[in-house]
Design goal:
heterotrimer; A mainly alpha; B alpha/beta; C alpha/beta; A: mainly alpha; MetI-like fold; two-stranded antiparallel ribbon; 4 strands; elongated; C: alpha/beta; Rossmann fold; eight-stranded mixed beta sheet; 13 strands; about 30% helix; globular
């Protein structure tokens, strides 16, 4: 399906753009981190250690107000004392308020984000492309009907719609055994990958409309190409024309949109987690929400997951830009004059 | 039919109307829909082994005719018979079988091949769609068989078999058109609609493709419906030619007859207009048709060509020069369509009080008439202008119509029952308009 | 003796694309006489349209005119620049390409004007047809009032006017006279009810009417030379006939010269006095219509004429030119006659670059010779005003057959240029006849 010409364009565009290289590096890094989380994480991400709470990242130190109760002159008094806390080598990015290792949490958070981003986008693509291609290829009343539905969807703010849907569907999540842990490589790590099922379905339901719009537009233009007419003249069925001609020739913008939507969905998931609707307790958004109240004393609890989101989203968007430039339909397809 | 050669394709009174303004939004806004009569009752036969040309200018409905008779567009009404079977009634397996026997080649060599498929895949697709071969019979797998067939087809159309893995964009326009032809041949059809197959090609390449089409027809005994706008190409390749204008066939005949003795004024104008690539063409003054093709949304009554025709027939008792007649008709057209606004004329005269009728009439005459009227023609026009000056457009139109109405606008001419018919009132038409209809329909059955 | 209005010498235009250098126009020379219609005919990719653009200096990036002169006869300009820019002046002629940019620009309109193929995209859909023509008139009127100061074209239309105009859309910067002149022009090009049609927008016009409006716009500056680039290609044959008749009438009435660029030899035959045939960026044969149509020398010209089906007297079989139009990529062109690989009469002599020969005399012409950079010779001597042929013939061909008979003894073997056989070094992928990304022609 990928022509040598496409590969050539991808390479040429990659050679030309430093940003594309940065994007790919970021995305590959996030992917590796997510896949190898049990190996890379130094600690169990959920293990609490109140004795080591709010440790700052390496290179920083922090002052905490420690509240202790002491016997002073026979009565118990609450004493506030300022304490200098130094970073610990075993927690290079510090710990959160419950003493959980930030680095491990961010590494595991990448899994949630990517799973939701990839699966949510896949589901959105499936729904959106099916609807869009059908509407665009058949046109007329089918098109009218489907596109009105999508207009209605677009009229809702996505976050509000997502929260409403979660309220409607409940917050189920799936637990899948982690293959790395199951293989006995890192027995001390969480045995399951938590898949926030509802969130995935919801972000797909919120985002499919974009794919439907793009797919419809592409289908409309591909439909009028003479090779589609030729296929009909040869006796091909509508389904086979859509699958063999319309879909492959609509894929480029859908692919580009998908990369951008992965980033958007990661953000949406974080927002949901931040607002407490995610159902996952290992998520960048969830950590930001947790760290919010400690922002004045322990800035890293909220900022580091935030930085992770930024890096992932920027990386994915840069890859999207690269694909868009390289697969530009103006370059692809028609080669002759 | 006087000629031998039994028809492979019979088309009778085929119509294709497009409905405009029928979307949800239009209906919500209460906008009425209207139909565009792209093809409006065409009838012809394509005989086995011949090439029938369909020629006409853009928008005349020639491509729509080709696509409708292949069921690539649904006909509004009419009959199409292919080898005795009714094409428009086919479904399922019948239609699939029909698709194997009737194929099409398109105009645009750049849009007719899927850019993401290799030439091998494109040429194997017809076989794949029809599940062919049922059995290769020699141990080759189906996909091997299809690939070999693709190579065979490539060589047959003058390309090299080792180009089978290339993509369309690696070929020139002429080569791509050859691939399009190879695809149409893949199922060994009997009938191919060639929809402007050489229009997008340079002349030197066009000649190659025309020769190829000639060779293939001879080799496989193909029947062609050749749609084109280039009359030289049509003359070269076709056995018979149908000339279309605004959704109708206006003349049909054997190629040499039609080119040497064109009957319909439109055919004559077309032939006159073509620039010949010869020294004798230098400085030739062409009596060009005036005006544009009217809109198919609202075609003229009677003969559709009458608005541009240089030979409109005046009533028997009216003696009038053709140019003057055209001016009188234009005046009436403008009055009837509301195009002529008396207010604007008064303004131009500079007499908003509307007192100076002679000035009003003089102004209109200067604007509309280059020729001189005389006798009763003059009196009638004067009366009509009087009515206009009084603001009574209806009476003006009525006055003019009474004297000047032509058979060309009241009666739609039909093709006669003969070898070289022309739908024109200059050639014996049935006396009663209804009789003409009946006859045409009787012929259709 | 010099009745030319335009002398084009050694014009070369190249496009610098990612695929490589594209030689769209290569060393093209021709004259356009006062009041004649000069035809340039060629297939797609022959460089004819780029030649048109080069004439009027409208080649856009990545294209550039790399060499050549366009000598335009204008005694006033010649007088004005004789002292300051002697290299740009020769007799009554000025080399347009060596004039200052502002002057060059001011020549578009009163000196050169164009009509393009696609009238639909050449007019602004959001302005009325009348307005657009009136604007062209206004520009010329102001330019005349204040000659060759390009600023004058937009003078009097400052920021304040721009603001007022956007607030009050009815206000137009064209004057009453210009609007009246626009209606006159529309009438001249045969548009009925010109005053009313002037108020309409381009989409309300049919293709033929739009092309008439385009011509009216081109006439606004009363040009000396009208460059018509495929003016009837997008039109139906009956409408084409109208437009061709109109162009000829206008040309006769206004006494202007027309450069008619087309792929249609029929249009050339009807309209032109003299003609140049282009192939692969070069003019391969030129002469009077009779020379080229009745007595063609170059096998390409012969092939082209043999490819066209005859309307009156159809031959049983056409004689096409085999093969495909070459890409114009510099790296694939090679140092030989560009037509040799398709030529049925290619000889060993064709493996070097071929100069232009005068057909009767059989002598290489002027400074072109076998020296490919003949451009420089012509430029150096300042002989832009010189006659091209001294022997009086105008029939020239870039083909050895102009000076000697075809000799089967010296013919190249069959399949000499096939990639499989041991031919001259060619591109790695010679089957690939894809044209470069830049659309060299349309």
């Amino acid at each position: 399906m990928v022509s040598p010409r496409t590969v050539r364009n991808l390479k040429r565009e990659l050679g030309r753009s430093a940003l594309a290289k940065v994007g790919i590096a970021l995305v590959v890094a996030v992917l590796l981190v997510a896949v190898l989380a049990p190996v890379l994480a130094p600690h169990h991400p959920l293990k609490q250690n109140l004795g080591e709470s709010q440790l700052p990242p390496l290179g920083f130190s922090a002052v905490t107000n420690e509240t202790t109760s002491e016997m002073v002159n026979g009565s118990i008094e609450v004493v506030q004392r300022e304490r200098q806390v130094d970073a610990s080598l075993s927690h290079p990015l510090g710990t959160d308020s419950l003493g959980r290792d930030m680095l491990s949490r961010i590494i595991y958070g990448a899994r949630t984000s990517l799973l939701v981003g990839l699966l949510g986008t896949t589901l959105a693509v499936l729904i959106g492309v099916t609807v869009g291609l059908t509407a665009g290829y058949y046109g007329g009343k089918v098109d009218d009907g489907l596109m009105r539905v999508s207009d209605v969807m677009l009229a809702f703010p996505s976050l509000v719609l997502a929260i409403a849907l979660i309220g409607l569907l409940g917050g189920a999540s799936l637990r899948i055994p982690d293959p790395i842990v199951a293989a006995g490589v890192e027995p001390g790590m969480p045995p399951n990958i938590v898949l926030p099922g509802t969130v995935i379905v919801v972000v797909a339901l919120v985002n499919w409309v974009w794919f439907a719009r793009v797919a419809r537009g592409e289908a409309l233009s591909v439909r009028s190409e003479e090779y589609v007419k030729a296929a009909r003249a040869l006796g091909a069925s509508d389904a086979s024309i859509i699958l063999r001609h319309v879909l492959p020739n609509s894929l480029t913008p859908i692919l580009v949109l998908a990369t951008i939507q992965i980033a958007a969905i990661i953000l949406l998931e974080s927002s949901l987690a931040y607002l407490g609707f995610s159902g996952a307790n290992l998520s960048w958004g969830f950590d930001i929400a947790q760290g919010r109240q400690y922002l004045s004393t322990s800035w890293w609890i909220a900022s580091l997951p935030g930085l992770a989101i930024v890096l992932a989203v920027v990386g994915i968007n840069l890859v999207g830009d690269w694909l868009r430039d390289a697969l530009d339909p103006g370059i692809e397809g028609e080669g002759g004059v | 039919m006087t000629d031998a050669g039994d028809p492979l394709v019979r088309v009778r009174d085929l119509r294709k109307y497009y409905v405009e303004g029928d979307s949800l939004l239009d209906r919500l806004l209460g906008r009425g829909s209207r139909s565009v009569k792209a093809v409006d009752g065409v009838s012809f036969d394509v005989r086995r082994g011949e090439t029938l040309g369909v020629v006409g200018e853009s928008g005349c409905g020639k491509s729509t005719t080709g696509e409708t008779l292949l069921r690539l567009r649904e006909a509004t009404s009419g009959r199409v018979e292919f080898d005795g079977e009714s094409v428009l009634d086919m479904d399922g397996d019948e239609l699939t079988r029909f698709r194997r026997r009737a194929q099409i080649v398109f105009q645009d060599p750049f849009s007719s091949l899927d850019p993401r498929m290799t030439i091998g895949e494109i040429l194997a697709e017809p076989l794949r769609i029809h599940g062919l071969p049922e059995d290769t019979g020699d141990g080759r797998s189906k996909s091997e068989y299809r690939r070999d067939r693709a190579k065979e087809l490539l060589e047959r159309v003058g390309l090299s078999a080792n180009q089978v893995d290339r993509y369309p964009h690696e070929f020139s326009g002429g080569q791509r058109q050859r691939i399009g032809i190879a695809r149409a041949l893949a199922l060994e059809p009997e009938f191919i609609v060639l929809d402007e197959p050489v229009s997008a090609l340079d002349v030197s390449v066009q000649a190659q493709v025309l020769n190829l089409l000639d060779d293939l027809q001879e080799e496989y005994g193909l029947t062609y419906l050749f749609i084109a706008h280039d009359l030289s190409v049509v003359r070269h390749i076709c056995d018979r030619v149908a000339v279309m204008y605004l959704g109708e066939i206006v003349e049909l005949g054997p190629t040499d007859d039609l080119f040497d003795d064109p009957r319909h004024p439109y055919t004559r104008a077309l032939l006159e207009s073509v620039p010949r690539a010869k020294l004798s063409e230098q400085g030739r003054r062409v009596e060009a048709l005036s005006g544009d093709v009217p809109s198919p949304r609202d075609p003229p009554s009677g003969c559709r060509f009458r608005t541009r025709c240089p030979l409109v027939i005046p009533p028997d008792d009216v003696d009038i020069d053709q140019r003057t007649y055209r001016e009188v008709m234009d005046l009436r057209d403008r009055v009837e369509s509301g195009d002529l606004n008396p207010d604007a004329v008064w303004d131009a005269v500079g007499d908003p009080g509307r007192a100076d009728k002679p000035a009003f009439k003089r102004h209109l005459r200067e604007e509309l008439f280059d020729t001189d009227l005389d006798g009763e023609n003059e009196d009638v026009v004067e009366k009509a202008l009087d009515a206009l000056a009084e603001g009574d457009g209806d009476r003006a139109a009525e006055t003019l119509r009474e004297r000047f109405e032509s058979v060309c606008e009241t009666t739609r001419p039909v093709l006669q029952e003969r070898d070289h018919p022309a739908a024109c009132h200059l050639y014996d038409q049935p006396v009663e308009p209804d009789a003409g209809r009946d006859e045409a329909e009787a012929r259709a059955d | 003796m010099t009745d030319e209005i335009l002398r084009v010498r050694g014009l070369s235009t190249r496009f610098f694309t990612e695929e490589g250098q594209v030689n769209a126009v290569e060393d093209v020379s021709f004259d356009v006489r006062n009041g004649e219609i000069y035809g340039i005919v060629g297939e797609s990719g022959s460089g004819k349209s780029v030649t048109a653009l080069s004439l009027i200096d409208l080649v856009d990036s990545p294209g550039r005119i790399t060499a050549g002169e366009v000598w335009y006869r204008n005694a006033d300009l010649a007088g004005e620049f004789r002292e300051t820019r002697p290299e740009a002046v020769d007799g009554e002629f000025v080399d347009v390409r060596r004039l200052p940019e502002g002057v060059r620009r001011s020549l578009r309109g009163p000196a050169f004007s164009t009509v393009f193929q696609d009238p639909m995209s050449s007019l602004n859909p959001s302005l009325t047809v009348g307005e657009q023509i009136a604007e062209a008139v206004e520009v010329q009127r102001r330019a005349r009032a204040n000659p060759r100061r390009t600023r004058s074209r937009t003078q009097g239309y400052g920021l304040s006017n721009l603001i007022v105009d956007s607030v009050l859309p009815s206000r137009s910067y064209v004057s009453e006279e210009s609007s009246e002149r626009a209606v006159e022009l529309l009438e001249q090009v045969g548009i009925p009810d010109p005053a009313e049609r002037a108020e309409e927008y381009p989409h309300q016009f049919s293709g033929g009417m739009l092309q008439r409006a385009m011509i009216a716009q081109a006439l606004a500056g009363e040009p000396d030379v009208l460059v018509a680039d495929e003016p009837t290609t997008a039109l139906d044959v009956t409408i084409q006939a109208q437009i061709l008749t109109l162009l000829r009438d206008l040309q006769e009435r206004e006494g202007m010269s027309v450069v008619m660029i087309t792929h249609d030899l029929g249009v050339i035959a009807r309209m032109c006095d003299r003609v140049g045939v282009m192939y692969a960026g070069e003019i391969v044969e030129s002469g009077t219509l009779a020379d080229v149509f009745e007595n063609p020398v170059h096998p390409y010209t012969r092939g082209l004429l043999g490819s066209i089906p005859d309307l009156e007297d159809p031959a049983p079989r056409l004689q096409p030119i085999e093969g495909n139009v070459p890409s114009l990529l510099d790296s694939e062109m090679g140092d030989r006659c560009y037509f040799a690989d398709r030529c049925p009469m290619a000889m060993e002599d064709c493996l070097t670059r071929i100069p232009e020969f005068a057909v009767s005399a059989g002598e290489p012409q002027g400074g072109v010779g076998s020296d490919l950079d003949g451009v420089d010779d012509a430029a150096g001597g300042g002989n832009g005003g010189a006659e091209r042929g001294d022997d009086g013939t105008e029939h020239r061909a870039r083909c050895v057959l102009a000076e000697r008979e075809y000799d089967p003894e010296r013919a190249l073997p069959d399949g000499y240029f096939d990639p499989e056989s041991a031919g001259p070094p060619r591109s790695a992928d010679p089957e690939r006849r894809r044209e470069p990304e830049v659309n060299a022609d349309d």
